[in-house]
Structure formats: structure tokens, C-alpha cells
Design a protein that fits this description.
The longest helix has 41 residues, at 2-42. The protein is globular and about 60 Å long. It has helices at 2-42, 49-56, 74-86, 105-114, 144-151, 154-163, 179-199, 237-244, 250-255, 281-292, 314-317, 379-402, and strands spanning 62-67, 92-97, 121-126, 136-141, 169-174, 224-229, 260-265, 269-270, 274-275, 306-307. The protein is of the alpha+beta class. The protein starts with a helix and ends with a helix.
Length: 406
């Protein structure tokens, strides 16, 4: 009898421990589910992508290597000093390798590539590596002319001035070199942008998001501009090279003579490229609606696009509502050439944009099942899904707490 009582006591104790463990596990699961649901809502924003990027996304810096087999002479030193002054508003970092300065392991490959030049050379590198390798977006002799070409150009200047003034998105049309093709494609781009200005409506901005906006919602307007860029313009050589580095196969398409269109927004961020027949009504509208729609994720690194290099004082023209430290902002620049699918919205299609995560294998074609990049209509859907997750978590918690226990 005593053994039976002891057995019953042990059984009761084990059940109690089991229920306690289950209860703690449920509480943990319940808490994590709710926090995750609220976090998904917190990352969303009702401010248009183009405006949120302009106020909050800091362009990623580029490393500019000044490479010489021997110490710089006095004129080169003077040019380097002027370079530092001219580039104070540019997203760059200067590194000098002149036979005396120590070379870091990370920059050795860049230096070795152009170290056999007869004169001082300049090579522009992205700060983010691609598959462990550095990426040079442009290189040229180190001269006053090339420094000017690197830091600014007529088209980049017009783009920046437009983006801080009235432009929502500035499209860059890189010509093919065939006037007949270029005139027709550019006319198509411009006519479609004029139509979209009257069709696309900006999202209604939530009161909670007004703290992240320096202007009143009524001041925001949709305006698209288009700039023609000649592939043979010497003043735009550096800019053309930057654009062609935003995706891994654009140089090949460039050599084939394909015209290209690049939507630029925020602080000089290129969304992606449209090529040839892909410069069509559906793809132009798709990109425009995405940039004019609600920002689905405020984290820059989780959004498509790469930065271009430009010397422009953004902070002088744009009031920052909540300054963010650079180390707190995940950055993505032109180095992320493989993170944006080469086929993204390039050819005319009826499906949404392809997310960066979809392309895990080089050369893989996007499929309909992979097309889930947030669009301007999905802000409400994301919120509803998050709320459904909360309701589901509450229901499961109630079942564990108050449902029948075995």
C-alpha cells in the first residue's frame, strides 16, 4: 500500500513537472510569436519608398585607391590634397599606395592589378565584397580630369538636384548608339512616365510614421524625370561604368548595343536595369509603383538597389527627421552586383519583381513562385498577416492553458 502511494506521488509529481514544462514552453512560444508579429509590423512604413530613402538611407562609401610604384611627386601630392577637399561631400574613402604606404591584405589584389602602370593610377573599389572578391567599378590615370569625372558629371548633378527638389524618381536612359532605336525607346519611357504621374496615387501616411517624415504628406507629389546618357560622352565615362557594374551581365549587354534604363531614387540609389525590349510599359510601371508605394521594409539592406558615387551634400538639402548613425544602418552599394537578379524586371512580364533572395544559383531564371517582392499594394496584406499570426498565437495559447489536459 505504501509503495502504491509512493508510486502515485511520483506520478503526480511527474505530471506536475510535465505540465510546468509545457506551460513554460507555451509561454515562451507565445511571447516569441507576438514579438515576431509586432516586429514585422514595425519594419513596415507607410512613407513612399523614394521619400524614405532620401531622408534615411545613407549611401555606401567607395574606396578610391591612388596607386604609384614610387612616392608621389609634389604635383601629385597637391592633386591628392585637392581631391580630399573636392571629395568631402562624396561617399568615398581614399587609400594611397605609393611604394611607402603599407598595403593591407584586402587591397593587395587591387594594387597589384594596376601596379605596373608607368604613372600614378586611380582604381575605385566597392566596400562590400562579392563572393569574397573585391570589385573595381572604374580605373583611370590619376589626373585632375579623371578626379572630376569620378566625383561628378552633368547628368549626376541634374539627378541629385532633382531628387532633393521635386523629383520622386530620376530615370537614366543609357543610349545604345543607334539613334532610331534610342529615340523610340526614350519616347516610350517619357510618355509612360507622364501617364504614370497622373495614374499612381501616393499611399496614405499613418500618423505614427509622421515622425520619420520631414515634410507634411500634402507636400509630397509624384514626379518622374528622364535623362539621356550617351555611351560615348567622355564626361560621363565614370558614371556609365558605375551603372554597368550594378549587375553582373550589363557590360556584356552594353557591348551588344542594348539600350538601358535605370530608375534612380533616394540619395542616388539605382533600383535595377531595364534592357532593350524590357523598356516597356509594364516594367516601367512596375518599378514606378514600387518606388512610389509604401516602404515595405525600412532596413536598407533588405531592399533592392545599389548606390552610385557622387559628390553632393545631401544633408544640406534634406532635413533629417531622425539622424541615424552609419554603423546602425546596414548598407548596400555597387559591390552587391550579384544580389540583384540579372533578369529582374528586365523583360516585359506580368508578374511582380523578383526578390533578391530568390536568386541563389547564378543564371537561374526567375519563376512565378519566386515573385514576392513587396509591391505598393502589399502594405495592408503584411499587416493583416501579422495580425493573423497574433490571433493564431493567442488561440494556441488559450488551448494549451485552458483546453483539456491528458
Amino acid at each position: 500500500m505504501k509503495k502504491l502511494q509512493n508510486a502515485n506521488s511520483v506520478d503526480v509529481l511527474c505530471r506536475s513537472i510535465g505540465l510546468a514544462m509545457r506551460s513554460n514552453a507555451v509561454r515562451f512560444f507565445f511571447t516569441v510569436a507576438i514579438l515576431a508579429s509586432f516586429a514585422s509590423i514595425a519594419l513596415c512604413c507607410s512613407i513612399p519608398v523614394f521619400r524614405y530613402a532620401l531622408e534615411h538611407w545613407i549611401p555606401e562609401p567607395f574606396i578610391v585607391h591612388i596607386i604609384s610604384a614610387s612616392p608621389l611627386d609634389e604635383s601629385q601630392k597637391a592633386l591628392l590634397k585637392d581631391f580630399e577637399e573636392l571629395g568631402k561631400n562624396a561617399n568615398i574613402r581614399l587609400k594611397v599606395s605609393d611604394g611607402q604606404s603599407p598595403k593591407s591584405d584586402e587591397s593587395k589584389s587591387i594594387v597589384q592589378t594596376v601596379s605596373n602602370r608607368d604613372s600614378a593610377w586611380m582604381a575605385v573599389e566597392t566596400t562590400k565584397k562579392v563572393e569574397g572578391l573585391t570589385q573595381v567599378i572604374w580605373d583611370a590615370p590619376f589626373s585632375r580630369e579623371t578626379v572630376q569625372q569620378l566625383l561628378s558629371s552633368p547628368v549626376r548633378k541634374r539627378i541629385c538636384e532633382g531628387l532633393v527638389d521635386k523629383d520622386s524618381v530620376s530615370w537614366v536612359f543609357l543610349e545604345s548608339g543607334d539613334p532610331t532605336v534610342d529615340d523610340a525607346k526614350f519616347a516610350k519611357l517619357e510618355s509612360e512616365l507622364r501617364r504614370l504621374e497622373n495614374v499612381i496615387k501616393l499611399p496614405e501616411i499613418d500618423t505614427a510614421d509622421l515622425k520619420d517624415l520631414s515634410k507634411s504628406p500634402e507636400e509630397l507629389k509624384i514626379r518622374f524625370t528622364a535623362h539621356r546618357l550617351s555611351r560615348s560622352d567622355r564626361l560621363e565615362a565614370a558614371f556609365v561604368s558605375m551603372l554597368l557594374t550594378t549587375e553582373s551581365d550589363l557590360r556584356e549587354e552594353f557591348d551588344k548595343g542594348s539600350p538601358m534604363a535605370f530608375p534612380v531614387f533616394g540619395r542616388g540609389r539605382v533600383l535595377y536595369a531595364l534592357l532593350g525590349d524590357g523598356i516597356a510599359a509594364s516594367t516601367i510601371e512596375e518599378a514606378s509603383r514600387f518606388l512610389a508605394g509604401a516602404c515595405q521594409c525600412t532596413v536598407k539592406a533588405d531592399n533592392p538597389g545599389v548606390d552610385m558615387l557622387v559628390a553632393f551634400d545631401w544633408d544640406e538639402h534634406v532635413q533629417i527627421t531622425e539622424p541615424k548613425k552609419e554603423e546602425d544602418m546596414p548598407l548596400t552599394g555597387l559591390g552587391a552586383v550579384t544580389s540583384i537578379p540579372p533578369e529582374t524586371a528586365r523583360y516585359e512580364s506580368s508578374h511582380p519583381l523578383v526578390p533578391q533572395e530568390a536568386v541563389a544559383v547564378q543564371g537561374m531564371k526567375p519563376t512565378r513562385s519566386q515573385t514576392n517582392l513587396p509591391s505598393s499594394q502589399s502594405f495592408t496584406l503584411v499587416t493583416l498577416v501579422a495580425l493573423a499570426a497574433i490571433v493564431g498565437s493567442i488561440t494556441m495559447g488559450w488551448m494549451f492553458f485552458f483546453g483539456p489536459k491528458s
